[in-house]
């Protein structure tokens, strides 16, 4: 069975080469078709429908069924390549303190670890499912989910098992922080042994990725050498690499990520010229998390400097209880445009194809023949309404 989706005022394909795409600078890199249609087909119990045809509505082939979007717009489903959705507890008071000047240093993570360990599986599952639904309701169709609020073998495995119920993009983050009861030198060394040994062995079968919070400026996180050890152990266990780097200060995270061939280094708030240069010539995506800067009152990363140098950029929510409790990719797009100087087209691309690159995925982030039918519906005549109508729920995942 095939279905024709027609009445699309603007269709963002993400393929700049698509025939008939608008060529002006406002739409650069997006492959936008006006008055467009899509035909999807296939799919069944175990597989999603795929795109069979994309083009101007006037040239659309017949299909078994048709739906008319009556002048709304369609974009690729957002790819949120960085989130920490498996947690319990509340840290709103920490947010309030930051708004009146208390700096973020990662110390609050311990509060979430305690609450998460105390929650039952059904409680955590319900919280996780609710957050994923919240994301879909705002246009996100692919999400990466990290562990990192368990910090024992059992609790990290549990977080990964739960994450695997909602996504294939599961990340082992035992190296989020050193647990508070292990902060002396011996305890720290023993925790690192655990993260790279028994905990890794138990977690690797449940994850695709390994991540580390590389931040020498935080007493809770890991320095360059510790991070290298974590990443190399993860790689030896068959995991692919991603890094939290350069969030609170210039540091070794970016260089390490590039050197080890990580798919992405995330935050990139404080970068040296050498960091920018390294990213520009690399296969490592710079993932920017503007909601973190919003919620921690930090300066925003310099997206123009990265884009100008030729680095590949993604944006993601980092949805977590500490630095950014927002699941909204539309808000991240708006912040990227308003606060980081990205054009609307660059921001939308970073939230779709950029996120896909950060997850090394070629099957999402674009709308093209042969790819999964993975779309978000914009209740407006133009995709530009995503940042333009900031705070208004104009975009949601399109269920087909
Ligand atoms: N910086 C490290 N981890 C998270 C924050 C976690 C938390 O504060 O609970 C982040 O990406 O910002
Ligand atoms: Zn994070």
UniProtKB/TrEMBL annotation:
Source superkingdom: Bacteria
Domain Amidohydrolase-related span(s) in chain numbering: 74-380
Cofactor list: Zn(2+); Fe(3+)
A molecular-function term among this protein's GO annotations: iron ion binding
Chain positions recorded as N-formimidoyl-L-glutamate binding sites: 149, 320, 322
Enzyme class: hydrolase
Keyword set includes Iron: yes
Binding site for 4-imidazolone-5-propanoate: 91, 149, 176, 247, 323
Catalytic activity, reaction form: 4-imidazolone-5-propanoate + H2O = N-formimidoyl-L-glutamate
Residues annotated to bind Fe(3+): 82, 84, 244, 318
Binding site for Zn(2+): 82, 84, 244, 318
Similarity-based family: Belongs to the metallo-dependent hydrolases superfamily. HutI family.
NCBIfam families, A to Z: hutI
Name of the protein described by the UniProt record: Imidazolonepropionase
Organism of origin: Ornithinimicrobium humiphilum
Upper lineage: Bacteria, Bacillati, Actinomycetota, Actinomycetes, Micrococcales
